[in-house]
C-alpha cells in the first residue's frame, strides 16, 4: 500500500506489473502470470530501475547546481571504478554461455601470468590485477547482462500521478523493428568505458583519491588494513612504486627557471638561456641523478622536495633580513619623529627648570639680603645703644666730677651753697656734728680727700663698665 502511494500509481496496476507479463506477437497480445520466483525478480528489477533513475537524477541536479560551463577548460568529475574487488560475486561478462566462455579462457590464457584457474570450479576464473587477485563467476552473467527496463514497469512509472516519478521515466523513443537492437549491460559498460578513456586521453587529469577510513560509517575511526587494501586496489601503491623508479617530476625549462631562479642570483640578469640557467641551478643545489632533456628537466623522487626545502630556507633567511631592515627603518623613523618632538619639549622643560632655579635663587638671595640687613640693623642698633650708654655714662661721670670739683671748691672757699654745707654735714660722722667754734686745717682737708676718693672710684667703675661693654660687643660681632 505504501509503495503504490509513493509511486503515485494504482495498487492494481502495480500488482499487475509485478506479477504479469504481456507477450506481444503478431496480431495478438498474451498475458502471462509469473511464478513467485519470477515475481520476486520482477520486483527487484523495478527497485533497481528506480534506484538507477534516482541516481541519474541526483547526478544531473548536482551538475546543474554546480553550473559547469560547457566551454570551460577545466572540469571536476567523480570516477567510481573501484570496489569490484570487494564483491563476493563478479559475473558481468560478454555474451556467451558461462561454460563455453570459461573453457575458452582456460584454453587461451592458461599460461598467462595474470590468469589463474580455481581448483574446485569449472566456471570461475581469477584475474591477477596489480590491485589484487579478483575471482569472477560466469554462471549468472547472462541474467545480469539482460538488464533492461521492463515495458510494464516503464508504462506504470510513466503514468504516475506524481510529476517527479513520471519525470524519472520519460516515454521511450519509438524505434522501427528493422533498426531496433538490444543494448546489454556489457555493451553499455564498454561504451561508457570507451567514452571515459577518450575523456581522460583528451585532458590532463589530476586525481584526488578518496579513501574510506572504516566500514562502520563513524568518525574518528581509521582501519589501517582496510585503508591499505583500498590503496593497493586503487593502484596508489603501484603508482608510487613506478613513480619512484623513474622521474616522477618533470618540469619545462621555463617552469623550472621561474620557480627556482632565486637559488642562483646570477641567472636573474637574463644573461643565460633557459637550458644553461637550469643547469646552473641544478649544479648550485648539488643534486645527483637528474636528467636535462630537450624541453624538460627530469628529477628523481624526493629531489623536488629537496629543491623546495632549499628555496624555503632561502626565502626564510631573506624574510628575516627584510624584516630586520623593515624594523630598522621603522625604528629610525620613529626615533627621528620622537627626537623632533622631544627636543622642543626638553627645551621647554630646561627653560622651566632654569626659571624655577632662578626664582628659587632669587628668593634665597633676597632672603639672605634681608637676613643680613636685619643682622646689620640689630648690630648697628646694639652698637648705637652701647655707644649711647657709654656716652651717657661718660657724661654722668664728667658731670659728677664737675659737680664734685665745684662742690669741693665751694667748700674749700667757704662760700658754697647750703647744699654743699649739708653735703659736708652728711659726709661728716655723727660724732663730728657737734658745733665747734673753730675748725682746724686738718679737719677741713678730710672731706676733700674723701670726695676725691669717691670720684676716683666712680671713674674706675665707669672705665671698667666701658671696657666690659666693648669686650661684649666684640665677642658678639
From TrEMBL:
Residue ranges of domain Myosin motor in the record: 1-316
Repeat as UniProt keyword: no
Residue ranges, compositional bias (Basic and acidic residues): 425-453
Keyword DNA damage (UniProt): no
Family: Belongs to the TRAFAC class myosin-kinesin ATPase superfamily. Myosin family.
Residue span of region Disordered: 419-477
Keywords on record: Actin-binding, ATP-binding, Calmodulin-binding, Motor protein, Myosin, Nucleotide-binding
Species in which this protein is naturally found: Daucus carota subsp. sativus (Carrot)
Name of this chain's protein: Myosin motor domain-containing protein
Amino acid at each position: 500500500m505504501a509503495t503504490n502511494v509513493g509511486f503515485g500509481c494504482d495498487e492494481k496496476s502495480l500488482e499487475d506489473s509485478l506479477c504479469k507479463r504481456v507477450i506481444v506477437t503478431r496480431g495478438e497480445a498474451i498475458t502471462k502470470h509469473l511464478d513467485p520466483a519470477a515475481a520476486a525478480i520482477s520486483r527487484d528489477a523495478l527497485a533497481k530501475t528506480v534506484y538507477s533513475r534516482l541516481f541519474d537524477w541526483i547526478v544531473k541536479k548536482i551538475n546543474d547546481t554546480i553550473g559547469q560551463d560547457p566551454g570551460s577548460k577545466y572540469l571536476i568529475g567523480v570516477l567510481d571504478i573501484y570496489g569490484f574487488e570487494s564483491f563476493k560475486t563478479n559475473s558481468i561478462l560478454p555474451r556467451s554461455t558461462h561454460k563455453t566462455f570459461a573453457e575458452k579462457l582456460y584454453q587461451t590464457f592458461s599460461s598467462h601470468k595474470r590468469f589463474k584457474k580455481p581448483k574446485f570450479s569449472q566456471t570461475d576464473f581469477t584475474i591477477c590485477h596489480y590491485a589484487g587477485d579478483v575471482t569472477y563467476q560466469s554462471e549468472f552473467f547472462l541474467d545480469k547482462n539482460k538488464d533492461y527496463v521492463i515495458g510494464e514497469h516503464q508504462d506504470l512509472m510513466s503514468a504516475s500521478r506524481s510529476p517527479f516519478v513520471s519525470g524519472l521515466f520519460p516515454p521511450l523513443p519509438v524505434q522501427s523493428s528493422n533498426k531496433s537492437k538490444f543494448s546489454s549491460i556489457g555493451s553499455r559498460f564498454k561504451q561508457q568505458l570507451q567514452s571515459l578513456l577518450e575523456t581522460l586521453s583528451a585532458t590532463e587529469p589530476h586525481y584526488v583519491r578518496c579513501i574510506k577510513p572504516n566500514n562502520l560509517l563513524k568518525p574518528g575511526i581509521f582501519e589501517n588494513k582496510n585503508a591499505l587494501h583500498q590503496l593497493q586496489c586503487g593502484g596508489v601503491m603501484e603508482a608510487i612504486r613506478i613513480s619512484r623508479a623513474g622521474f616522477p617530476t618533470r618540469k619545462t625549462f621555463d617552469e623550472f627557471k621561474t620557480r627556482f631562479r632565486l637559488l642562483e642570483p646570477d641567472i636573474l640578469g637574463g644573461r643565460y638561456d633557459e637550458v644553461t640557467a637550469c643547469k646552473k641551478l641544478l649544479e648550485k643545489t648539488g643534486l645527483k641523478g637528474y636528467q636535462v632533456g630537450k624541453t624538460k628537466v627530469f628529477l628523481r623522487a624526493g629531489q623536488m622536495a629537496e629543491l623546495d626545502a632549499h628555496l624555503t630556507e632561502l626565502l626564510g633567511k631573506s624574510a628575516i633580513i627584510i624584516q630586520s631592515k623593515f624594523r630598522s627603518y621603522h625604528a629610525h623613523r620613529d626615533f627621528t619623529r620622537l627626537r623632533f618632538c622631544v627636543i622642543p619639549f626638553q627645551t621647554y622643560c630646561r627653560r622651566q627648570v632654569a626659571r624655577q632655579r632662578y626664582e628659587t635663587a632669587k628668593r634665597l638671595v633676597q632672603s639672605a639680603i634681608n637676613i643680613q640687613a636685619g643682622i646689620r640693623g640689630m648690630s648697628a642698633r646694639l652698637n648705637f645703644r652701647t655707644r649711647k650708654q657709654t656716652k651717657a655714662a661718660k657724661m654722668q661721670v664728667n658731670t659728677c666730677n664737675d659737680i664734685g670739683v665745684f662742690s669741693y671748691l665751694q667748700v674749700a672757699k667757704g662760700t658754697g651753697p647750703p647744699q654743699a654745707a649739708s653735703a659736708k654735714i652728711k659726709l661728716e660722722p655723727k660724732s663730728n656734728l657737734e658745733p665747734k667754734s673753730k675748725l682746724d686745717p686738718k679737719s677741713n682737708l678730710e672731706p676733700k680727700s674723701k670726695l676725691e676718693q669717691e670720684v676716683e672710684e666712680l671713674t674706675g667703675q665707669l672705665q671698667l663698665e666701658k671696657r666690659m661693654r666693648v669686650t661684649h660687643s666684640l665677642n658678639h660681632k
